[in-house]
Each structure stands twice: as structure tokens, then as C-alpha cells.
Design goal:
The structure holds two protein chains of two kinds. By secondary structure, chain A is an alpha/beta fold. Chain A is built from five helices and five strands. A five-stranded parallel β-sheet of chain A has the order 2-1-3-4-5, sandwiched between helices. Chain A starts with a strand and ends with a helix. Chain B contains 20 helices and 18 strands. Classes of the chains: A alpha/beta, B alpha+beta. Chains A and B meet through helix 3 and helix 4 of A and helix 7, helix 10 and strand 11 of B.
């Protein structure tokens, strides 16, 4: 079984730390970046299977990173799991419209997050 | 006693006198001659007789000419002048017969012309003035009627004299000459009126504010009341108010959310803080205890999370009602965008309605469109609105270069317009709980802006000028026995029912009730009652054919209890009138127990009244009466309860006039006449 690669784009260190820990424990290969530009570089360098993408990122918003990914045919297989601390319904609408595969509002439990990641990575469809 | 003789008779007498005088002179002369000279009298007699006849002939002829050319023309001229003095006759006086009267004819015509001109000028001036007053009146009526706030004017004893559309929509049971206290819970208003009176006594003017709830307690009205003072006494009060329910509710919701947020976070945070403190400071805690503390922190965190979710949802839903929003047509948005001449924008799709601040949305879209277009890398711009569940999405599409979210965000960070100060696109998006983004679409891309969907704004009723005021309401006659009240000033409800069939006792039921009020002699077309009733049984197709009401139509209609009560309230204090009233009343009275109200109002029947006025043979159907009184009854409304009620109201109003001319002026008179007809009818049936 190929080890799945996950890219985490999250600028808040406390949360990133926790994410890395319990995602890493599930046996995924993990990379973390803290801003939008770095996320795009990491994508180009080593295309992950899934990106956990926070909306509020410095330099480039998570929305824009999502746009770039979806505009680029090379990244067709990458699943996008968007996160936000802003509680509005409309952020979800926008995220999904821009092509995110799933959208979660913080705070959420690690169990919810892992379940979501698992289901996205199992799903063979694009 | 000198009898005045007509002019011609006098002239005739004059000529007769002239002739007789002349004749006497001649005979006298002849006689003197004869007595002096002597000789045969024959000669004298012959000459006397000849002279007599010739003189007669000449005198008569001259008298005749005089009569033709002087006396009669004088009389004719006098008559013409008299006529024109009394009535407005447009023609010149015929001068031909008066041609021998010298300057009299032309002089008479000169006066006539001057009179005609004066009259014309006067008429013209009156017309203009009336038109001007009419225009002013129409303007004021429209202003009042269509004001965005409710306006009601009440008499000093709190009966309604005037109301506008908004007031009618906000208040139940509002109508001319009705007590205002039946429209809302009026205690706060009475307190305000007391404060107002106290002020007026101190010679201070001004208004008092009040906050009152509607009768069903659902809505709150915030208003101001002022007194109308004329010649030292209060002739009425003016109330201006609006529905403050939503504002108040929004404020309450915000406060509540805030409080809940504070409460909901303080305690869990305190608990977590305490647990963490313990865990950190007590290094030698046994593992089971550590587990307990960890579990308790988890519990508090879960509580925090669920509280946050809940508040987040409610915050999302609490629309910012103090921001001016309205129902806007997406086509209007496009029109305004195009008017800015930024670039050609083609319309796709249908019209939809959204609830938003039209100005802010327009500024946002203009800003985006401007930036998109000025890059030179994009063309073929389109505008489309489409429904997506409870939202309508606005889209501006184009072919060419895409746009990044960062770019969009930058544009949205700018202030929208000098008019709005520093208010930016981002702020506007937050106000509307919206977002904006760019997505691929067809062969290009589009900007999408979702907004809450709205109903197309309701157009008001198409009544030209429904009567909504009467400043001459009859004073309430407190001590008169009801039968002595004048028909001209009594309030009436003219009504009609449609039923499943003709036998109230045989199981037939009412399917529609409609009525219209007559107050102070006027039919108030703006105050009608028109409701379908669920008969809780089948409606035979034969009866549906007559009144057009099917079982489909009454599904969801109120039952006889609810509608009957509402109708009873509508008829409060009025005399009931119907065509063939015993029929309709039989139904209503039979249902009194079910409705819980009794219809013991005085009743008048137009069939009986018409029979009394026009003979008890002949046609007294509604159609016949309508024709007799020239009431137009179009086919579509014949046999609908409201159409028939209105026609009956017109007929009744005219019957009242006929009855008044025949001396039937009070309610008692009318009832007596109707009783008489009933007796005659009963006798006829034997």
C-alpha cells in the first residue's frame, strides 16, 4: 500500500502541532507549511494526495490556493479539505464552489477530522 | 286698485282713445258747422260717416303697424332680456323685429354680450379653481395613502376618521367610524393621549410617543400622536406609526446572543483553567485522578464547542435589520450596471428578486466589472441570475483571463463609494452575510455573488381612490332608540353568501361570505370582507356551476366558526342588508351556536324594500334591480359573493334615496314598510 501524502497549510502553530501529531500517527506522510505561497511551492515540489487547507493564510488565502490547484490539470487528483475558524455558512458555500472536496469549521475533534480525511482518500472518484 | 294692463292693450287703448278723441272732435266740428250754417244735415252726416270710417281704417292700420313694429318687439326684447337674465342663453338677441326701435336692439345685444362674457369668465375661473383644488386634494390623498408609515386620524371620542394603506395592513378591524380601541391594545395610546391633554392645558404643543401592540399581540407599533386643535378645542388626533417589531426583535436577539456567548464561554473556560492548573502543579497525581481531570476538561471543551456552534448558527441567521434592505429585481441591477457604461453586459436567464442593499450591491459589482474590463484581457461580458434553493446567485461571466481570489479580495477591500465613507466591499459582503468568488463557467469564468432570495414586492390594490376618510362622521347618538336613527347616517353592512344549496335545514352549508360597509351614506370599497368557508361537506357540481366555488378552492379555507366570528366582528354595530335577506340570515342564524356569536343586528331586505317602492308585482331579482338603477354588474362577478354584495350595496344606496323622497327616513320606518310587504306576501301565498 502506497503511503498517502498529506500537505497541511495552517499558520497557527498550536493547531498545526496537534494536526501533525494525530495525522502522522495514522501513518500518513506529512508536510506542513504556514503560508499560501509556501503551499504552492510544496505542491509543485511533491504533489500530495490531500491538502488540509486553512482559509486564513498569510500571502495567499486558502481560497486562492484552492483556485490555483483546481485550475491546474496536473493537480486533478489532489483532494482539498478546507478549514476555517470563521463560522459563516457562506464561507462553506464559497469553498465548495471553488472546488474544495470537504469543508470543516473549527473547532472540531480530531476524530471528525481523521474520519473526513479517511473518507476522502478512500474515495477513488475525483 | 289700478289693474296693470299689458303693454299692447295699453297701446291699443291709446289708439282707441286717439280715434275716439279725433272722431269726437270731428263730429263736434261738424255739429258746430251745421248749427252755424244750417242746411240739409245729410251732407254733414255723410261726411261724418265717411270721416268716421276712414279715420277708423287709418287709425286701425297705424295701430296695427305700431303693434307689429313697436309694441310686440318691445315685449319680445323684454322677454329675451329676462330670459338671459335668468339663464345662460348662448344666442344673440334677434334684432330684426326691433329694427324700428332705433338703438334699443343693439343696446340690448351689447348688454347680452357683456353678460355672456362675464358668465364665461366666471365659469372658467370656477373650473380652474376646482381643478386646482382637485389636484391638491388628489396629491394629499396619495401622499397620505401611500406614506411608508401608518397614519390614522381619530375623532375626540376615538373613532376612526382617516387611515392609510399601511395602517390598514398593520391593524385588524380598522374602518371608518369604528372605535380605534378595537384595532389594537390601546392602553399605551390612552396614556399618551392623557399626557397630551395635560400638555395642551398648559398651552404647550407637541407630540407624545407610544408603543402599543396589535390586538393579537404579534406586532409592536411605535408611533407619535398629536392633537388637531381648531378654535381652541380639540377636533381630533393624528397618529403616525410604524411596525417596530423587527427592530425590537433584532436588538433583543443581539443582546441575547452576546449574553449567551459570555455566559457560555466563561464557565467552561474557568473549569478548564482550573483543571489545567491542577494538572500542571501536582506532579505526583495518581494516574486515575489524572484521567478524571482530563475527562472533565474534555467535557468542558465539548460544551464550549457546542455552544460556539449554536451561537454561530444564530448569528448567521440574525439578519442585520437596521441596515436598509429591500426587494430588488435582478433586471434592475443589470439596468443600473449598464447605465454606468463600463462595458457591454448581455443579459442571460430570467428575472429574480433578491433582498439586499441595492446601492451597495451595485457598487460592488461595478467595482469588480470595472477592474475586470480594464485589464483588456477579457471580453463578452454577461450577467445572469439564477435560483439556488433559498438564494439567488448573481453572476458576471466573461471569456478570457481568470481572476485570482487575492485580486478580488484586494478590490473588495476598497471603500465602495464616498457616500458610504469607509464602508468597503468586504463590509458590504459581511452585512449581507455573503461572499464573492470567481469560478470556471462554460468557456470562461464568472464572478458569483449569492444573495437571499425574495418575493417580488406586492403591488398594492388597484382601487383608484378607495374611500379612506370621512371628516363628517355622524355624531354618535347615544340616547336614541335604535329605530329612531336616521337611515342616512346609520352604518350598514351589505352582504351576500354563497352556499352549497338552498336548504339551510336540509344540510346545506355556506361556502363564501362577503360584505361591504356603508358609512355615512358612502360605500367604502376599501373596507370589504371576502372569505371562502370550508363547508366540511361536498359541494354539488350544480351549485359550483352557479357560484364557481369548487371543493379544491375551499381546501385550507377557514371553517364557519372562524369566518363567522370574523364576519360578526366586521358587522359590529351595523345594520345588516342583503338581497333576500331571510335566506342568508337563515344560514347564519342556524350556525350561531357553532360560531359562538349571535346575529341579532337589525336587518333590511332589498327585495322587500324594492317591492314597497315599486309595487309588489313585477321583477325584484338582483339583475332586475341592477338594471332599474343602472348598476353595472359584469358577468365575472355576478354570483360571486363580493360582486353581488357590491351590486346590492349600489342598489340599496339608491333605494335609500327613493325611500327618503317617499318619507321613509328612519330605521323604524324602513322596518315598518318591510313588515307590511311581508304581510302582503304572506296573504298572497294563501
Amino acid at each position: 500500500m502506497d503511503q498517502k501524502k498529506i500537505l497541511i497549510a495552517e499558520d497557527e502553530d498550536n493547531i498545526a502541532m496537534a494536526l501533525e501529531l494525530f495525522i502522522g500517527r495514522k501513518g500518513y506522510k506529512m508536510t506542513r507549511v504556514a503560508d499560501g505561497d509556501a503551499a504552492l511551492e510544496a505542491l509543485a515540489a511533491d504533489t500530495p494526495d490531500l491538502i488540509v487547507l486553512d482559509i486564513m493564510l498569510p500571502n495567499r488565502s486558502g481560497f486562492e490556493v484552492c483556485q490555483v490547484i483546481r485550475n491546474d490539470a496536473a493537480y486533478n487528483g489532489v483532494k482539498i479539505l478546507m478549514m476555517t475558524a470563521r463560522g459563516g455558512k457562506v464561507e462553506r458555500t464559497k469553498g465548495l464552489a471553488l472546488g474544495a472536496d470537504a469543508f470543516m469549521t473549527k473547532p472540531f475533534s480530531s476524530a471528525e477530522l481523521l474520519a473526513q480525511i479517511d473518507s476522502l482518500l478512500e474515495d477513488p472518484g475525483g | 286698485m289700478k289693474e296693470r294692463l299689458g303693454l299692447r292693450k295699453r297701446f291699443a287703448l291709446f289708439f282707441a282713445a286717439l280715434y275716439l278723441g279725433g272722431l269726437a272732435a270731428i263730429i263736434g266740428g261738424l255739429w258746430v258747422g251745421y248749427s252755424r250754417v244750417g242746411g240739409a244735415p245729410d251732407g254733414y252726416v255723410i261726411s261724418g260717416v265717411i270721416i268716421a270710417f276712414v279715420l277708423l281704417g287709418v287709425t286701425a292700420w297705424v295701430a296695427f303697424l305700431f303693434d307689429e313694429n313697436v309694441a310686440q318687439p318691445i315685449l319680445a326684447l323684454a322677454s329675451d332680456l329676462n330670459t338671459r337674465a335668468r339663464a345662460n342663453v348662448d344666442q344673440k338677441i334677434d334684432e330684426q323685429p326691433a329694427r324700428y326701435l332705433g338703438a334699443l336692439g343693439p343696446a340690448a345685444n351689447a348688454i347680452n354680450e357683456a353678460l355672456m362674457q362675464l358668465r364665461e369668465e366666471q365659469e372658467h375661473a370656477i373650473e380652474e379653481e376646482t381643478a386646482r383644488i382637485g389636484r391638491d386634494k388628489a396629491l394629499f390623498e396619495t401622499l397620505l395613502r401611500d406614506l411608508a408609515e401608518g397614519v390614522v386620524v381619530i375623532t375626540p371620542d376615538h373613532r376612526v376618521m382617516l387611515y392609510n394603506r399601511v395602517a390598514q395592513n398593520l391593524l385588524a378591524n380598522l374602518g371608518l367610524d369604528r372605535p380605534f380601541s378595537s384595532c389594537l391594545q390601546a392602553d399605551p395610546l390612552y396614556h399618551a393621549l392623557d399626557r397630551l391633554s395635560a400638555r395642551l392645558e398648559d398651552d404647550a404643543t407637541g407630540v407624545e410617543t407610544f408603543l402599543a401592540s396589535t390586538r393579537d399581540g404579534d406586532r409592536f407599533l411605535l408611533g407619535r400622536v398629536g392633537a388637531i386643535v381648531s378654535q381652541g378645542s380639540t377636533t381630533g388626533y393624528v397618529l403616525i406609526f410604524h411596525d417596530a417589531t423587527d427592530e425590537l426583535a433584532a436588538h433583543r436577539e443581539h443582546d441575547h446572543l452576546f449574553n449567551t456567548l459570555l455566559e457560555g464561554t466563561r464557565r467552561p473556560v474557568a473549569a478548564i483553567s482550573a483543571s489545567l492548573d491542577v494538572l500542571q502543579t501536582d506532579a505526583e497525581m495518581p494516574p486515575e485522578m489524572r484521567v478524571t481531570f482530563n475527562a472533565s476538561m474534555q467535557e468542558e471543551v465539548d460544551r464550549l464547542i457546542s455552544r460556539l456552534k449554536e451561537i454561530g448558527t444564530r448569528h448567521d441567521a440574525a439578519v442585520l435589520r437596521h441596515w436598509p434592505m429591500s426587494e430588488v429585481s435582478t433586471n434592475d441591477i443589470l439596468l443600473s450596471l449598464n447605465a454606468r457604461n463600463i462595458t457591454q453586459l448581455d443579459l442571460l436567464g430570467d428575472e429574480h428578486f433578491v433582498r439586499c442593499d441595492a446601492f451597495a450591491v451595485l457598487e460592488m459589482l461595478s467595482c469588480v466589472l470595472k477592474h475586470l474590463a480594464e485589464s483588456g484581457t477579457r471580453n463578452s461580458f454577461t450577467f445572469e441570475a439564477w435560483q439556488d434553493e433559498s438564494e439567488v446567485r448573481l453572476g458576471i461571466g466573461w471569456s478570457g483571463k481568470d481572476v485570482s481570489d487575492g485580486q478580488l479580495d484586494e478590490w473588495m477591500q476598497q471603500p465602495l463609494s464616498p457616500v458610504y465613507g469607509q464602508y468597503s466591499g468586504r463590509d458590504a459582503l459581511a452585512t449581507h452575510r455573503a461572499e464573492i468568488w470567481a469560478e470556471p463557467s462554460g468557456s470562461g469564468y464568472r464572478i458569483v455573488l449569492p444573495l437571499p432570495s425574495a418575493e417580488a414586492p406586492e403591488l398594492g390594490p388597484t382601487d383608484e381612490r378607495p374611500e379612506f376618510y370621512d371628516f363628517n362622521l355622524p355624531l354618535p347618538e347615544a340616547d336614541t332608540e335604535s329605530d329612531d336613527q336616521l337611515l342616512a347616517t346609520l352604518p350598514f353592512v351589505v352582504f351576500d353568501t354563497e352556499t352549497t344549496g338552498l336548504s339551510p335545514r336540509g344540510g346545506d352549508e355556506i361556502v363564501q361570505i362577503a360584505g361591504v360597509r356603508i358609512v355615512n351614506g358612502r360605500i367604502l370599497r376599501g373596507e370589504v370582507f371576502d372569505e371562502l368557508v370550508d363547508p366540511k361537506r361536498s359541494i354539488p357540481p350544480s351549485s359550483s356551476e352557479v357560484h364557481g366555488i369548487t371543493e379544491e378552492m375551499v381546501k385550507g379555507a377557514g371553517d364557519i366558526t372562524r369566518v363567522g366570528r370574523a364576519f360578526h366582528e366586521f358587522c359590529e354595530g351595523s345594520v345588516l342588508v342583503a338581497h333576500n335577506a331571510p335566506f342568508d340570515l337563515a344560514f347564519l342564524r342556524l350556525k350561531q351556536e357553532e360560531i359562538g356569536r349571535s346575529f341579532d343586528h337589525p336587518v333590511l331586505c332589498t327585495v322587500l324594500l324594492s317591492a314597497a317602492m315599486y309595487g309588489h308585482t313585477g321583477q325584484h331579482t338582483l339583475d332586475a334591480l341592477a338594471e332599474r338603477f343602472g348598476v353595472d354588474l359584469p358577468d365575472e362577478v355576478r354570483h360571486t359573493a363580493l360582486g353581488d354584495a357590491l351590486a346590492t350595496a349600489e342598489v340599496f344606496r339608491q333605494l335609500l334615496e327613493v325611500m327618503a323622497a317617499a318619507g321613509i327616513k328612519t330605521l323604524g320606518d324602513a322596518k315598518a314598510v318591510a313588515r307590511q310587504m311581508t304581510r302582503i306576501k304572506k296573504q298572497q301565498n294563501y
